[in-house]
Amino acid sequence: MKKQIVLLPGDGIGKEVMNAARDVLTAIAEEYNHTFSFETHEIGGAAIDQFGTPLPETTVDACKQADAVLLGAVGGPKWDNNPSHLRPERGLLGIRKALDLYANLRPIKGFKNLLHASPLKEEVVAGSDLLIVRELTGGLYFGTPSERRDNGQSVVDTLYYTRKEIERIVDKAFQAAQGRSGRLTSVDKANVLESSKLWREIVEEKKSQYPDVKVEHVLVDAAAMKLVTNPSHFDVIVTENMFGDILSDEASVLTGSLGMLPSASLNETGVGLYEPVHGSAPDIAGKGIANPVAMILSAALMLRYSFGLETEAKLIEDAVQSILDAGFYTADLQIAEGRKVNTEEMTKLIVDYIRTLNTSKCIASCYY
Ligand code: IPM
Ligand code: MN
User: What secondary structure letter does DSSP report for 352?
Assistant: First the structure.
């Protein structure tokens, strides 16, 4: 299989973890006789520095022509005081909008031997395995106009959705639930927000089309509580952009580290953008200690969703699992036992596993 992949490393640890994903994909390509060609472009702060804009047109054009896009992370203190249109985050929001990536899938599954790394009790997080389907191109993030009024004494952000925008994300979530254990939780604030009332109506309308899916509605505040008190209650959660942003960071504590969570952002034509849930982590950027797993697992999602390469995707996921099982961990995981490794070492362990296909024991024993 021949595929053209655009890499958008972005800022901070984005650059470091992107190298890791590239190494893993190169190993996969060689093992399975695929041709993956990579083209790197700038986004975020790096693009502001180089081109004076967080999202250069050349980047957008390259992404539109690619088979898939991998993104590291954007942002950093250097650009924190920039005006809104010159903030790195604008690049990320802009590329999501330009590619119409309305469906953000964030799978959250606790790794067995990392459960104790979660600040939550092990018995609470055990068995949690959920998928957050976050609407990504509407809501408060894109409502116009966002503006200061009355000489800065008042401010407005708009939560705007069209029926079509809600329908397509709800359909996506029902389909995802069909492929999993058939339970869908729609999260809203229908006791207050008009947008949530329409959201709830649409979920109710759609459910007859998916008789095999069991649907419930949960208010976002209650959902936030349930996520940390009884996470295994959830299978698929569908929700609007801002709620999904907040809940997915919250859900990340189930896995012990934000550094473990991949995400896929999909549109209707199939060009997907894959990125870790974590940010650019300026505090550890440049130290070579970032956890590359979220980025590597994002590359696995790309193989699965954009290229249909299930075997290859699964191998990457198995490799990650085996290396963690063997006791290797990066600095972000609060683990007492095992062996702490840096970004490069973690990547090499995963790559070696892929290249030798099944020798996790050997790899582990070589290091101990
Ligand atoms: C995320 C991030 C972004 C978001 C920021 C960086 C704009 O937090 O992908 O979750 O809010 O969507
Ligand atoms: Mn976020």
Answer: H
Mean per-residue pLDDT pooled into runs of 10, the chain (368 residues): 98 98 98 98 98 98 97 97 95 97 94 83 92 98 89 95 98 97 98 98 98 98 98 97 96 87 93 95 96 98 96 96 92 84 98 79 47
What are the DSSP calls for 100-113, one per residue? Answer: T--EEEEEEE--GG
3-class secondary structure, 26: helix
Q: What's the pLDDT at 43?
A: 98
Quote the CA–CA distance of 291 and 314 in Å, as a whole number.
20
Structure tokens at 155: 């401010």
Does 285 sit in the ligand 1 pocket, CB within 6 Å? no
User: What sign has the CA pseudo-torsion 29, 30, 31, 32?
Assistant: positive
Task: Name 134's bridge partners.
Answer: 104, 239
260 CA from centroid of ligand 2 (Å): 14
Distances (CA, A) of 310 to 47, 300, 304, 313, 317: 34, 9, 5, 5, 10
For the four alpha carbons of 49, 51, 53 and 59, in that order, the dihedral sign comes to negative
C-beta 245 within 6 A of ligand 1: yes
Question: Whose CA is closest to 53, among 84, 9, 96?
Answer: 84
Distance CA 20, CA 248 (A): 23
> What is the DSSP secondary-structure string of 36-100?
EEEEE---THHHHHHHSSSS-HHHHHHHHHSSEEEEEE---GGGTTS-GGGSHHHHHHHHHHHTT
Q: For residue 363, which of 299, 319, 314, 315 has the smallest C-alpha distance?
A: 319
